[in-house]
């Protein structure tokens, strides 16, 4: 089993350095692909993470990487058993990331084409949302239908500020508590 950890916008593999050893101590292999700092489209970031690390992969997506995870899931659903959205923006079918995040984010990321969301299907893949309770406003609203939702008493970067709790929840989601 492999857990692939995708950092949000501007974060690299370094963001997971406190969590990775804790997951390894649970017998979980990890991958931390680097999403290039600049890209011309969401497809570029999806390409950066295309090999999720085998079969029976648990994909963990933080913040903006929720869109990357949805794209990976649409591209190769058979290899991904669980997607954990860690205080992530959730794709909304028919709406771009810019539509969801608003004009300030769009102005900041004008180099990237807007990405239209792929619908998430909880009947094909286990979908988990870890909601960081100290993120204001919340990164996403999850209605709970078909989802497993876990609260985490942390801010938006729990892998840095609360690595033990983050690793525990990821391990539980991956079937290795």
Automatic annotation (TrEMBL):
Say which domain of life the source belongs to.
Bacteria
According to the UniProt entry, its GO molecular function terms are: catalytic activity
Query: Which Pfam families does this chain map to?
Result: Abhydrolase_6 (PF12697)
The record's annotation in InterPro entries points to:
AB_hydrolase_1 (IPR000073), AB_hydrolase_fold (IPR029058), Sec-Metab_Biosynth_Hydrolase (IPR052897)
Q: Which residues form the AB hydrolase-1 domain?
A: 6-102
The family database entries (PANTHER family) matched by this protein are listed as:
AB HYDROLASE-1 DOMAIN-CONTAINING PROTEIN (PTHR37017:SF13), AB HYDROLASE-1 DOMAIN-CONTAINING PROTEIN-RELATED (PTHR37017)
Q: What name is this protein filed under?
A: AB hydrolase-1 domain-containing protein
What organism is the protein native to?
A: Virgisporangium aurantiacum
- Organism phylogeny: Bacteria, Bacillati, Actinomycetota, Actinomycetes, Micromonosporales
């Amino acid at each position: 089993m492999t857990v692939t950890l995708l950092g949000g916008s501007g974060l690299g593999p370094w963001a997971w350095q406190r969590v990775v050893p804790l997951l390894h101590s649970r017998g979980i292999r990890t991958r931390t692909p680097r999403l290039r700092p600049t890209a011309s489209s969401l497809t570029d970031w999806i390409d950066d993470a295309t090999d999720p690390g085998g079969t029976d992969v648990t994909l963990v997506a933080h913040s903006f990487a929720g869109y990357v995870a949805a794209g990976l899931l649409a591209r190769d659903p058979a290899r991904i058993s669980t997607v954990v959205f860690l205080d992530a923006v959730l794709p909304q079918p028919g709406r771009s990331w810019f539509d969801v995040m608003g004009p300030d984010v769009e102005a900041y990321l004008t180099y990237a084409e807007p990405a239209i969301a792929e619908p998430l299907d909880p009947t094909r893949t286990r979908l988990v949302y870890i909601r960081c309770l100290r993120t204001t406003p919340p990164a996403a609203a999850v209605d709970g239908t078909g989802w497993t939702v876990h609260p985490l008493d942390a801010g938006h970067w729990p892998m840095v500020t609360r690595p033990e709790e983050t690793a525990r929840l990821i391990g539980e989601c991956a079937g290795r508590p």
